[in-house]
Structure formats: C-alpha cells, structure tokens
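Run folding on both entries below.
>entry_1
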Amino acid sequence: MKTYGKDKDYRKALYKNLIGALRIHKKIKTTLSKAKKIKREFLKKNGGKVKVYQVGERWGDGAEMVILEWIKENLQSKNENKTNKITADKKRVASY
C-alpha cells in the first residue's frame, strides 16, 4: 500500500474525505492509486457502480489522473420500468 509520505491517521482521513466527496458530488478527480483504494472502500459501504475514466497525467509530477463517477443503481425503479413496459405492451395488444 502506498503511504504518500503520511501516517496512518492522515491516510484514513484522506480516504474518508474522498469517499464523502464522491457520495455528495457523484464525481471526483484524483490519482489512479488513490482511486483504486477509494473504489474498493466505497462499494463496500454504498453499493452501486463506480466508473473510472482516465484523464491523463498531472502536469507537475506526471501522476496518472482519473475521474471516479458513482452510478447508484436503483433496483426498485428498474423493476417498476419493466412492469410499466409489460402493462403498456398488454394495452397495445388489447387495442388491436
């Protein structure tokens, strides 16, 4: 695990803040190595999917930068959409 030259408490607070920012803003920009750790921790607690988009290197030190995007899947709304589609199909068949 990368330490980023910081102690354990600092890293724990860093990841906690990044996870909180992802939950609030649904999208954050960070380094690839931090994104891997955040993605694992975030999915354990919040569910859904997290997409990772690579955006290139940071100008100062060449670190690989990514955008993390949280896609919260709402299973209930998916089931409702399927039910509505089936109902609409039945009405369409009945009208012929």
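>entry_2
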Amino acid sequence: MFHFTLLLCACHERTPSPGPVGAQALPAMPGAQALPDPPAGAQGSPAAGMDLLGDACAAHEPYACGALGRELLAGRFVQADPERGTLLLRQACLGGADAACLAAGMR
C-alpha cells in the first residue's frame, strides 16, 4: 500500500507539459484553399461544423468529404442520407483519403 501511495503522489507532483506535441502551426497543404469563417453566432454548434465540412468538401478537400460522408451515413449531426454519404465517401477515396475508402468498402 505504501508504494502505491508514493507512486500516486509522484504522478500528481509532475509539472504539466507546455502543450500538445506539434502545437505549432502546420504549413498549408499544396492546393489547399482557405476555408470561409463560420456565420456569426454559429461557432461551436454541430450545424456550423457540418456547414464547414460542406464548404471544405465543395473546395475539393477529400478528408472533409470523407468526414461529411460518415456523418451523413450515421445521421448524428445531420439527417441521415446514405446515398449522398456513400457518394461523398467514394469522392473522398478517389481524392486520397484512405479512411474514406475503408468506410465506403472500396479497399
């Protein structure tokens, strides 16, 4: 019991890390387009997140298309639309988003 208490205390006395690894700004990907700012008052809402994913997908960002496709299949933050969700997953896969390929059953 004594060793456990010392270990527990030692863990709580550590100083916090300065931040997550890689917290610096990342360079822009070649061909990436800047996303528009969300509408005023909509920041942080699921609807605003889905709108941003839709805007990024329309700007040909495959990972955004894949994320939006998965949400359309699941129907969590938007009304489920399996046909459009599958179409977006395939589009994302063809754009290079490997996780979308797996979700679409293409690989």
